[in-house]
Amino acid sequence: MLRSMIGLGREVAMKRAALALVIVLVLAVSAWGQDSLGWKPSVDFILNLTQNSYSDNWEGGEAGSVTWVASANLGLERQFPTSWNWRSALRLAYGQTHSQDAETNKWKKPFKSSDLIDFESLLRYLNWKVLPPYVAVRAISQFEDASNPDHKFYLNPLELTESAGLTRVLHKEGDNEFLTRAGIGLRQRITRTYTSSPSPATTSTTNTDGGIEWVTDGKYKIPKTGIVWKTKLTTFKALFYSRSKELKGTPEQDYWKAIDVNWENMVSAQVAKYVAVGLYVQWLYDKEVARGGRFKETIAVGLTWKML
User: Fold this and answer.
1) In this structure, what CATH number is given to the domain that contains residue 40?
2) pLDDT tens track for 191-227
3) Average pLDDT, the chain
4) Domain that holds residue 205
5) In the chain, N or C: fewer CB atoms in 10 Å?
6) Of the candidates 143, 190, 247, 141, the residue with the CA atom closest to the CA atom of residue 7
7) 205-240 burial string, b = 16+ CB within 10 Å, else e?
8) pTM of the full predicted structure?
9) What angle do CA 269, 172, 260 make, to 5 degrees?
10) Which of the four pLDDT bands, split at 50, 70 and 90, describes residue 276?
11) Domains: count for the chain
């Protein structure tokens, strides 16, 4: 049965991810300006740019560089009269770094500095007052996989998560809210690879695991400051793994049993109508990828445009 599930996931995973993205975009277009229908859309774009340059007689071997990152945050939420609440969020980011050769001053080929596609949709049934049940789907990928210089892939790798369980609002006051949920989840990670020998070929592999999911989302706006803190803590404890038999007898045989953690924090402030500053901190722990935690920190000042 597990093999059938894995095979089915491999065949339809890409279609489901594409369908999910199409659905949220169609809903966003449908909800544009349609407040009377109950939809609450939100759209904002951010462009960050960093540049430095040096004259020809500058000593020290420094070289000029330009780094840019464009990101978009799209949200859509509706409270249905039958006590259903449906919210979806799509985060997009892409950026590149361009740099000069320190000796020739010629510009090198740009390399990617940021790349993210993160879509999540959550449906809750609020008639259960204490612990409302939920179902959720999440898709995480990137625009471009440039790990192989001979062959680039798009939307690779792709991680899909389907989950269901119970929710609890920890705090709710105006737009400030902390929502936690726990349940069972099923994950698929689809990875495509390219081999040039003995003959060019593209292969696709799907790894599946299932277990317990716990997610906490929070948003808090500090009064009279304009500073907004957003946080998302995602944990996943796998109870089964499709490759567990293959790994048996190796040092990594039990790595999949470790709890995966993804903790994201974003602090932002609007300092002018079209200028914002932000601090993004992310901590990841996945023992199958690295035995130690991975850390990412970004400080940015850039142009922002809130459409809704």
Assistant:
1) 2.40.230
2) 988 877 666 778 889 999 999 999 999 999 998 888 9
3) 84
4) 2-306
5) N
6) 190
7) ebbbbbbbbbbbbbbbeeeeeeebebbbbbbbebee
8) 0.83
9) 75
10) confident
11) 1
